[in-house]
Design a protein that fits this description.
Layout lengths: L1 H36 L3 H14 L4 H13 L3 H14 L5 H12 L3 H13 L5 H13 L3 H15 L6 H11 L2 H14 L4 H11 L5 H14 L5 H12 L3 H15 L4 H12 L3 H14 L7 H17 L6 H18 L6 H13 L4 H13 L5 H17 L3 H14 L4 H16 L3 H11 L5 H17 L7 H14 L3 H14 L6 H14 L3 H14 L6 H14 L4 H14 L6 H11 L5
Helix pairs in contact: 1-2, 2-3, 3-4, 4-5, 5-6, 7-8, 8-9, 9-10, 10-12, 12-13, 13-14, 14-15, 14-16, 15-16, 16-17, 17-18, 19-20, 19-21, 20-21, 21-22, 22-23, 23-24, 24-25, 26-27, 26-28, 27-28, 28-29, 29-30, 30-31, 31-32
Length: 606
C-alpha cells in the first residue's frame, strides 16, 4: 500500500511538472510570435532557437529562427544554420527551399534555383512533405514551383486529383483563369459535396467575362460524362449567376426529364427568377410544373401559387395595367379554386387572393368573406390565422368599420404578446387611434413600439412618433394634424379624391406648416397608387429639393429611384439616386437595399 501511495505521489509530481513545462513553452512561443509580428526579429530569433532546442527540434521554430536571421540580413549565419541542419536531417527537403531563399536574398539566383530544384527532385511519395514543399514555395510567391511540386506529388503518389484544390488556388494567384477553372472542376469531380465551396470560389474570383470559359469547359464535361448530374448542375448555376434565367430554366428542364426530379429543380429556378423580378421566366418555370406534374405532386400546388403570384406581379408592377388585366387574373384564381378547392392546402393562396381582391379590385366583401372562410378551417397554424386576422382588420378599416378592425388587431395582440405579429397588431391599433384623432394615446403606443424587435415596425413607430410630436400642439385645436390623419385614412381606404381635397386644404389654410413635407409625400402616395408616374416623380423631386433633411426624405428618394428604374426605364438615373441614398442617408433603413440595387445596375455580382 505504501508503494502504491509513493507511485501515486510521483505521478502527481510528474504531471504537475509536465503541465508547468507546457505552460512555459506556450508563454515563450506567444512572446516569440509577438516579437516576430512586431518586426523585433533579434528578440524573436533568440526565443525561437531556444524553443527549437527544447522541443524536439520542432520544424516550425527552426523555420522561424532562420527567417529571423534573414530579416536581420545575417545571411551567412542563416546559410550555416540551414546547412548544419541539413547534415543532421537530410530528409527535411523544405530546408533546400530555405537555403534557396537565403541565396536569392543574397543575389545568388543561380545557386538559389539549384537548391529549389533539389527540393523537387528529391521528393518522395510522402504527402506531408509534398504539401510542406509546395506551401514553402507558395509563401515565397514561387507559384510555378509550387504548382510543379503538387503536379509531381500527384505523379509519384499515383493518386490523381490529390491536390486539385491547392492547384486551383495557385492558378488563381498566377492569373491563369482556364487552369483555375479546370482544377476547381477537378476538385468538384473528386467529391460532389465540394460543390458549394467551388461555386463560392468561382463567384468570388471570376470576372463576368470569365464565365464564358467556365461554360465552355462545362459543356465539354457534360458531353464527356452525360450521366453525371454534377456538370449540368454547375452549368445551370452559371446561368443563374449571370441572371440568364431562360438558359437556366432550359438546363433545369433537361435535367428534370433526364433524372426524374418531379419538377424540383425547375421550381427552384423559377423561384429565383421570381425573386429577381424576372416574371416571364418565373411564369415559364411554374407553368412547366403545372402542365407536367399531377395534382398530387409535391410541387403542384406551390407551382400554381407561384404562377399566380408571378402573373399578379407582372400585371400590378406595371403602371399601365387595365381592368381587363385584373379581371383575367381574377379568373385564373377562380379556375384554380374550382380545380383544387378552398381548404387547408390552398390557404396560402386564399390569403393572397383576398389581398388581390382588396387592394387591386377594391372588392372588400369578397376579400373579407375569403379570409373568414380561411379562419373557419380551424386546423391552420396560429401564425397563419393571426396574419389572416391582421389582414381582416385592414379590410374592415378600409370598409369604414374601425371597431371591427380593432377587435381583430386586439385578438392578435392577445395571442402573440411576444414577437413580430403581436407588435404589428399593437402598431395597427395605435394607428387606429391616430386615424381617430386620439393623438396622445397613439403617441404613447408608438413610443413603446420604438423598442420593437422588428426593425421595420420600430422605424415606422419612430416615424409616427416624430410626426405627432412635431405637430401636436402647434395650434390649440390640433386641427391641422386631424385633417392630415383623416387624409391618411382616406388614402388607406382608396378614397383618393377626398384625400387630395383635404391635403390641398391644409396647404391653403395653413401655409408653410411643418406638415408640408408630409403632405407632399402623402399626395405622391396617392398618385403612385393611381399609377400617375409623372405626378408622383414631380412630387418626390419637389420634396427632396425643399426638405432634404426631413424624415421622409430617404423614403422619397428610394421610391423615386424605383420609379426611374421600373417605370421610366432609366437605369442611369436610378443608379445615381440609389448611390445618393446610401451615401447621403447612410443611416436609412433603405441604405443596404439601395447599395445592392446600385451594384446590380452596375452589373456587379451580388
Amino acid at each position: 500500500m505504501k508503494y502504491i501511495i509513493l507511485i501515486f505521489l510521483h505521478l502527481c509530481l510528474y504531471t504537475g511538472f509536465v503541465e508547468n513545462l507546457c505552460a512555459q513553452t506556450a508563454q515563450k512561443a506567444n512572446l516569440a510570435n509577438e516579437y516576430f509580428n512586431n518586426g523585433e526579429y533579434e528578440k524573436a530569433g533568440q526565443l525561437y532557437v531556444t524553443l527549437f532546442n527544447e522541443n524536439n527540434k520542432n520544424v516550425f521554430y527552426f523555420g522561424r529562427y532562420v527567417q529571423c536571421l534573414i530579416e536581420v540580413n545575417d545571411l551567412e549565419a542563416a546559410e550555416k544554420t540551414v546547412k548544419d541542419e541539413l547534415k543532421r536531417n537530410p530528409d527535411q527537403l523544405n530546408l533546400y527551399v530555405s537555403l534557396g531563399n537565403i541565396y536569392e536574398r543574397g543575389g545568388q539566383q543561380e545557386k538559389a534555383d539549384k537548391e529549389y530544384r533539389k527540393s523537387i527532385e528529391k521528393l518522395t511519395p510522402d504527402q506531408n512533405m509534398i504539401s510542406q514543399i509546395a506551401g514553402s514555395f507558395g509563401q515565397l510567391n514561387k507559384i510555378d514551383l509550387a504548382i510543379e511540386t503538387y503536379l509531381k506529388g500527384e505523379e509519384i503518389t499515383k493518386i490523381s486529383n490529390l491536390y486539385t484544390y491547392n492547384l486551383a488556388d495557385l492558378y488563381r494567384r498566377k492569373g491563369d483563369v482556364p487552369n483555375m477553372i479546370k482544377y476547381n472542376l477537378k476538385f468538384l469531380n473528386k467529391d460532389i459535396h465540394n460543390i458549394n465551396r467551388v461555386q463560392t470560389d468561382l463567384q468570388r474570383y471570376l470576372q463576368p467575362e470569365d464565365f464564358t470559359e467556365l461554360q465552355t469547359q462545362l459543356y465539354e464535361l457534360v458531353q464527356k460524362h452525360p450521366s453525371d448530374p454534377t456538370y449540368p448542375e454547375m452549368l445551370q448555376w452559371t446561368f443563374i449567376t449571370m441572371k440568364v434565367y431562360t438558359k437556366a430554366l432550359r438546363q433545369a428542364k433537361a435535367m428534370d426529364l433526364q433524372f426524374g426530379e418531379n419538377g424540383r429543380r425547375v421550381f427552384e429556378v423559377a423561384g429565383i427568377a421570381y425573386d429577381d423580378e424576372d416574371y416571364d421566366n418565373a411564369i415559364d418555370g411554374f407553368s412547366y410544373i403545372s402542365e407536367n406534374q399531377p395534382k398530387n405532386s409535391s410541387f403542384y400546388i406551390e407551382a400554381r401559387r407561384g404562377l399566380l403570384n408571378a402573373r399578379k406581379a407582372k400585371v400590378t408592377k406595371r403602371f399601365e395595367y387595365t381592368t381587363e388585366d385584373l379581371t383575367k387574373l381574377k379568373n385564373e384564381y377562380l379556375d384554380f379554386f374550382n380545380l383544387m378547392g378552398k381548404n387547408t392546402q390552398t390557404a396560402a393562396l386564399m390569403m393572397e387572393y383576398s389581398e388581390f381582391e382588396a387592394l387591386y379590385l377594391n372588392d372588400l366583401p369578397t376579400a373579407i368573406t375569403t379570409l373568414e372562410e380561411l379562419i373557419s378551417f380551424g386546423s391552420l397554424g396560429k401564425e397563419m390565422i393571426a396574419q389572416a386576422k391582421l389582414n381582416l382588420g385592414d379590410y374592415y378599416l378600409m370598409n369604414g368599420d374601425r371597431w371591427e378592425a380593432s377587435l381583430f388587431f386586439s385578438q392578435v395582440d392577445k395571442d402573440f404578446k411576444e414577437g413580430n405579429l403581436g407588435e404589428y397588431a399593437r402598431y395597427k391599433n395605435a394607428k387606429l387611434s391616430y386615424y381617430a384623432g386620439d393623438f396622445e394615446w397613439a403617441q404613447e403606443q408608438f413610443k413603446i413600439l420604438k423598442g420593437a424587435t422588428s426593425k421595420l415596425i420600430s422605424n415606422d413607430a419612430i416615424d409616427m412618433s416624430v410626426l405627432i410630436m412635431d405637430n401636436l400642439g402647434l395650434d390649440t385645436t390640433e386641427a391641422t394634424l386631424q385633417m392630415f390623419s383623416k387624409a391618411d385614412l382616406l388614402i388607406f381606404q382608396n378614397k383618393f379624391t377626398e384625400a387630395i381635397l383635404l391635403l390641398d386644404s391644409i396647404k391653403i389654410i395653413y401655409p408653410n406648416h411643418s406638415l408640408e413635407d408630409d403632405v407632399i409625400y402623402l399626395k405622391a402616395q396617392i398618385y403612385k397608387k393611381q399609377k400617375k408616374a409623372d405626378l408622383c416623380i414631380s412630387l418626390f423631386e419637389n420634396l427632396l429639393e425643399k426638405f432634404p433633411e426631413e424624415i421622409k426624405a430617404d423614403d422619397a428618394l428610394f421610391e423615386l429611384a424605383e420609379l426611374y428604374e421600373e417605370v421610366r426605364k432609366n437605369p442611369e438615373k436610378a443608379k445615381e439616386l440609389y448611390e445618393k441614398l446610401y451615401t447621403d442617408y447612410s443611416g436609412s433603413t433603405y441604405a443596404v437595399e439601395a447599395k445592392k440595387r446600385y451594384r446590380r445596375l452596375r452589373g456587379e455580382s451580388l
